[in-house]
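Record Nucleoside-diphosphate-sugar epimerase, 313 aa.
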Amino acid sequence: MPLRVFVTGATGVVGRMLLPQLRGRGHHVTALVRRARDADRLGDVDGVAVADVMDLRTLRRVLIGASPDVVVHQVTGFRSTDCASGMQRTAHLRTAGTENLISAAVSAGAHRVVAQSAASAYFPHGHEVLDEEAPLWTDAPGRWGAAVRAVEAQEEALLTCPDIEGVALRYGALYGPDTSFAPAGRIHRMIRGSAVPLVEDGGGITSFTHVEDAAGAVLEVLADGESGAYNVVDNEPAQSSEWLPAYAHMIGGPAPVSLTREQAREQLHWLTVHQLTEQRGATNFRLREAVGWRPVWPSWREGFADLFGLWPG
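=>
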């Protein structure tokens, strides 16, 4: 059944992939942009609203005007900024921004809010691949701890509001067009420059999510699935000892250098060392069972190969 869908983060890497898919399924789409000139970056949509999610008064006005059935929240703060500042801004958007959006959505009569969350926020102990019942690492140090606490606060606001059905989609490491893994992206540059090493046995696990699969998951939960948190990741969680050399080879970069953990701690930010040595992966079982979602790119190997023109067809 066609729905009226309001999308924040419409010009982001997931938003740009999502908009044509929503239209392709017959949904009425209103895209939110912060500045009127940003509308030029949108594709074919039914309406454009101009507001900042941090401005509750304006946000409520444009949402009431759009009268959506579902609000899709895809805003992050990483564009055109360094990683630390982007993490801090994203944390603010996930707390105050989400609260504003939920309040405005309720005022507009929407019945569901679907928001981007993070599968990288799990406490790094226990099973290698974790489900949605695993605890989040809310006492992690520094900016990462603040980021995880923002994820927790966002999901609590989504899932406890009595007037809305909240769905939190916990994406893995996003890759695909215009992401940091794409040509000229931040991680692409770092790996080509030998700035991402293998640390000891490379036991840190990453669960990847192609932006096409992130958008596809949004489509599946617009009306289906119970309120809750869902991991949106591919079928092949990978240790850094697997994906890092494979990625470097695909982009024609040098083989990653090897460091001991002590060397890595001296040379790298602690969060990078954590990701390469201790991070846990995630399972997509709940989302598959709840709504029948299946990733278009079940393995990062195929997705990266396609990204770099190495996949047949």
